[in-house]
């Protein structure tokens, strides 16, 4: 899998692993299973309603109206499923959430509505084997919609190396450059708690916990930054470890 490297304004390099083609296919299969389940439920309900009503006279217009309403109920989720999910679930459809992958801009920031809209609009031409071939051929794992929107799909599954996350690499202490000197204000018990919370949030994919932890750290240290929550917390803890080693 390719690695997306993003250099932030805080002189921090972030690395993201692009989602594999297999993971994206599995996520798509889960999404289609959900859509077809929705389709099956409403078709079953419609068939049951028709059979329960029995033969009646002069109901042609009513049946036609009911059929149109049923068609709209079935079609709307199919048409707008990916757009709505990605906008409201932080770049993840239900299938992507199940496979721990999500949409991200190539500059490391969260996609805007226009980016999600562009990806959705190009699904008309960019689906099935066309999407598979595009993702396989792209060095950044992009389908046509991603190329147009400047996005890709990355893995948010915790890496094995993160099983004991954020511990300082002693071999790099000498050349490490502190990004947030305010990290020295954190007490040792605060740092231990933050490490535990970050590990739990990564393991469970709990982005709300990451966000709350990041906000608490910012309140304690008065740090202002536009870094995403996880890279911010990782950087603060590395800074704290480095500063503590210099005392």
TrEMBL record:
The chain crosses the membrane at residues 25-48, 68-89. The keyword Transmembrane helix applies. The keyword Transmembrane helix applies. Keywords: Membrane, Transmembrane, Transmembrane helix. InterPro entries: RDD. It is a multi-pass membrane protein. Its main location: membrane. Residues 18-150 form the RDD domain. It comes from the Bacteria. It is found in: Membrane. It holds the Pfam family RDD. This is RDD family membrane protein YckC. It comes from Hymenobacter caeli. The lineage of its organism: Bacteria, Pseudomonadati, Bacteroidota, Cytophagia, Cytophagales.
């Amino acid at each position: 899998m390719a690695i997306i490297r993003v250099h932030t304004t805080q002189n921090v390099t972030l690395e993201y692993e692009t989602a594999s083609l297999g993971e994206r296919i599995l996520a798509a299969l889960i999404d289609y299973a959900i859509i077809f389940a929705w389709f099956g439920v409403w078709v079953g309900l419609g068939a049951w309603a028709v059979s329960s009503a029995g033969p009646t006279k002069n109901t042609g217009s009513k049946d036609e109206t009911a059929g149109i309403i049923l068609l709209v109920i079935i079609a709307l989720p199919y048409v707008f499923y990916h757009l709505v999910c990605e906008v409201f679930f932080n770049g993840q459809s239900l299938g992507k959430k199940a496979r721990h992958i999500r949409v991200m801009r190539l500059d490391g920031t969260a996609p805007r509505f226009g980016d999600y809209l562009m990806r959705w609009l190009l699904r008309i031409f960019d689906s099935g084997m066309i999407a598979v071939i595009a993702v396989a051929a792209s060095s950044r794992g992009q389908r046509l919609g991603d190329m147009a929107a400047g996005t890709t799909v990355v893995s948010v599954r915790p890496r094995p190396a993160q099983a004991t996350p954020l511990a300082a690499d002693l071999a790099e202490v000498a050349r490490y450059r502190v990004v947030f000197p305010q990290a020295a204000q954190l007490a040792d018990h605060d740092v231990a708690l933050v490490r535990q919370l970050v590990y739990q949030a990564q393991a469970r994919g709990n982005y709300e916990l990451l966000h709350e932890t990041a906000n608490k750290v910012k309140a304690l240290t008065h740090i202002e930054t536009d870094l995403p929550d996880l890279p911010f917390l990782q950087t603060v803890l590395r800074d704290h470890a480095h500063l503590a080693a210099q005392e």
